[in-house]
Write the structure tokens for this entry.
Amino acid sequence: MAQGATAVAAPVGARPVVGLALVGGVLLVALLAGGVDGHLGVFWLLGVAFGVILQRSRLCFASAFRDLFLLGEGRALRAVLAGLAVATAGFWLFQQRLVPDPGLGDLPGRAHVFPVGLHTLVAGLLFGFGMVLAGGCVSGTLYRLGEGYIGSWAALGGILVGLFAAGRTWNWWWQVHISQTPLIWLPRWLGFGGALLLTLAGLAGVYLLVLWWEARGAPPLLPVRTTLTPPAFGVRDHLARLWGLLFGRGWPITSGAIALGVLNVFAYVFDHPLGVTGELATWSARLGTALGWPLPPLQGLDRLAGCNLVAEGGALLSDSFFLDAGLVVGALTAAVLAGEFRLRWPRQARRYLQSVAGGVCMGYGAGLATGCTIGAFFSAIPSLSLSGWVFGLALAGGAFLGGRVLRWLA
Amino acid sequence: MELDVRGEICPYPMLKTVEFLKQHPGIAALTVLTDHSPALATIPWEAAKLGYEAEIETLGPAEWRIRLRKAAGAVDPRAVLSRLAHTLAQAGEGGV
């Protein structure tokens, strides 16, 4: 139900002029960045699409895990599982071209195959707890910035602090634990067929588990009054209806998650899978240096892909910068076109503290896992990496704990 | 009665609505003001569990009024679910 049933009329208060100006700006940046380096332009557009998808379908990984425990409801998590299945199929096809014989021990280039160990569990628990406390994960925080949520700036500040703390302690983690943990890429052990079968079976198994979990507390459901769509006559009517589908009401969340899965395949085929925290880590390191507290040289990063603590060698205008900036601007553009942009200030001071604290936990977890719900989960499971599953399991544990704490803070 | 949860993000708009309904048992109607769109899905859903029907009105950019009304009589969830599915199919809405 949800989006389909909650009839929100055509955009009220949409600002088409501002919206068109933003669309023009998006295209202009694409041309300028693409002129400097084609990669930058493409990652800018991927980022914009990322932001539009998250904003229109309100795809929030924090709620996907949290609502399972808070409401006994798994609609968003089931949508994420569908998106993961789509991305897995695409990644799987592409990886067979990258590494024709997986048994030799080569890893597929920039796939998100991360070390699995105790640190993956610690990172997932911290991240899951933090995202529930802050009301959104890292990508969620970025798209809410674009929608005008002021509290998300507090969460972003917390994330930067957490990433910086992770940078300060990284070498300890590396020496004591991470350097001894394995990178487990499933096709190496199971072949491509086995890895695909196991991943899809795992996703289907979790899907069934979520359905069972939801059915335990099956709610009596009342209809929300809906307005019937009148028939469309002619091109004009059809275009108006299309506009209404895109910007009149939210997209069904499953469509959003599947679109994100497809976008992730595009990103991977073009260069590397989606990931948003690496860029933020770079900024936290820059801010640290500016404040006279630079990070020490970090060990072992040459052996890791994904959202490393110092991304892209620290270049200012990088793929990851354009992806993150595009995410915020894409969400802003979609929100303006849909008439949903609005500056929203939390009315209780403690909400800011809550966002900062949640952000710090998330940032530290993302630093340790070399990725967030996107890089270490939504890109890792389709990369056929075991680390994505362990991180996802720990995210659920952290979200459970976060849900407990939330009620005290109401 | 009116409950203003503007400025709050998930899950607080829903938690506060449910808390209000539970603190005022049998209340016939409640109007909830919100500026957080995910609450448009969670509030009707949770209110339905307590026997309330929901209607949503858009007030302006990212501002909505959710009117909750106590449903008359007992409700058979199965019949209601199939009716809802039918209505949504006719409206060309996929649901989920």
